[in-house]
Design brief:
The structure is a homodimer. By secondary structure, chain A is an alpha+beta fold. Chain A folds into 2 domains: about 5-95, Aminotransferase class 4, branched-chain amino acid transferase, N-terminal domain (D-amino Acid Aminotransferase, Chain A, domain 1); about 100-250, D-amino Acid Aminotransferase, Chain A, domain 2, CATH 3.20.10.10. Chain A is about 30% helix and about 30% strand. Chain A has helices at about 5, 25-40, 45-55, 100-105, 130-135, 185-190, 200-205, 235-250, and strands at about 10-20, 20, 65-70, 85-95, 105-110, 145-150, 155-160, 165-170, 170-175, 195-200, 210-215, 220-225, 230. In chain A, the strands form 2 sheets. In chain A, strands 5, 6, 7, 8, 9, 10, 11, 12 and 13 form a 9-stranded mixed β-sheet that branches. A 4-stranded antiparallel β-sheet of chain A has the order 2-1-3-4. In chain A, β1 and β2 (about 20) form a beta hairpin. Chain A starts with a helix and ends in a 6-residue tail after the last helix. In chain A, about 50% of the residues are buried.
């Protein structure tokens, strides 16, 4: 009966756990709170979530921590209950088997046919309505392809199925505007502060000097190939990869002891 | 861990139960099968669903029957498991307290600000990604407003938050095209066979002689007011209301004994 299942009425976070601690805990909590606010869901108590996480992560070194917050039970049909009593779910999963060379040598990606519909009211939010990503990810099964790039219904390049995308041109770092659709990840936030946020056509993307992808688990993957077109793992990409790696390590201290 | 919660990776049906039997069982099963196919989910066995329903409806006269089918567990992130082992959930709920005059005298509706994103791959499908409806329904709490009308991101009138919409102009029945977005309900299907499927602007809608809404629970509600503009409960609306009422009664015989 939970509205999370009935309507996808909720949000989630996926966090890397290393050395037994979630990375970027405070940033993830801030994003969770902001995403809850976007849906009008009262955000759960961060201290309670930290307790849940600590309990789940006992004796773990490297893992994935996932938090789901739904609007909970009730309401009349689509009408949200007021006040809502949110459901919080905290889960631990195995660390995915990413090969180390994906981060160093880069990955091959493809362009997806499935488009992202425009929905400014949900843009940027990591909510539970993810069928567009499911359809896009189902377009290929070749394990040599690590990720797919998605465009919106007007043709702008927006993001990867499970990652944010960055391009470098003449030394400048650019990343797509996510005010119409897309998911604004924590890793993206770290780089976007010093990047130009743009509308990006496919031909602009193809003309990039460097391309890379980010999310909380992979950190940064250079793109070495997009549908057959090759890209170098360039200096800007390498600098950001090194910066993110350092930031990830430091960020473990954010987790409340 | 179910993908229905994680991604809204599934579909659902909402059926009226009268005289202890679900209405339009075969049409709902056909739509469920088609919607599952649209997502690549193996459709559950209709005989098993009928068994579930019979069990839940013992001793019930008027109720709501809801069926959720998700892709079940598994997969790697967004990538669907292959083969999938779907989850089926069959639920009974109380009949909603709709006042009888809503069907005879009509209802007041409003125009929603929340737009429907364009997503041809999911258009028509009653899937579990329903945040647009949740946001739209949350726009008003005045109980005198029974429904809200939604436009797509390009401004075309598509549907009600929980219903399909029809307009009558010079005796002709028209209903919006649902190939870009929207949910094609079973009631809509009954009328759409003899209606013209069109792209509908808001000003065309405002110029209608008659307006009405349909879904499996309400059957047909005439619209007597749209944001202050009054409409008559006209002859075409009344004819369709009478036809649907008869069809609903007959359709109970479709349910396997």
């Amino acid at each position: 009966m939970d509205r999370g299942l009935a309507y996808g009425d909720g949000v989630f976070r996926t966090m890397a756990v290393s050395n037994g601690k979630p990375e970027f805990w405070l940033k993830h909590m801030a994003k969770l709170t902001a995403d809850c606010a976007a849906l009008g869901i009262p955000a759960p108590d961060a201290a309670a979530l930290a307790d849940d996480a600590r309990q789940l992560l006992q004796g773990e070194s490297q893992a994935v921590l996932k938090i789901i917050v739904t609007r909970g039970l009730g309401g009349r049909g689509y009408k949200p209950p007021d006040p809502a009593t949110p459901t919080r779910i905290v889960m631990r999963a195995h660390w995915p088997a990413y090969r180390p060379e994906m981060a160093t040598e880069g990955v091959a990606v493809r362009l997806c046919d499935t488009r992202l519909g425009l929905q400014p009211r949900l843009a940027g939010v990591k909510h539970l309505n993810r069928l567009e990503q499911v359809l896009a990810r189902d377009e290929w099964s070749d394990p040599a392809i690590a990720e797919g790039l998605m465009r919106d219904s007007d043709g702008r390049v927006i993001e990867g199925v499970m990652s944010n995308v960055f391009m470098v041109k003449d030394g400048e770092v650019m990343t797509p505007d996510l005010t119409r659709c897309g998911v604004a990840g924590v890793m993206r936030g770290l780089i976007a502060e010093s990047a130009r946020v743009v509308d990006l056509t496919l031909s602009e993307l193809r003309g990039a000097d460097e391309l890379f992808l980010t999310n909380s688990l992979i950190g940064l993957w250079p793109v070495r190939q997009l549908d057959g077109q090759a890209y170098a793992v360039g200096p800007v990409t390498q600098r950001w990869a090194a910066s993110l790696a350092k930031l990830r390590a430091t960020s473990r201290d954010e987790f409340p002891a």
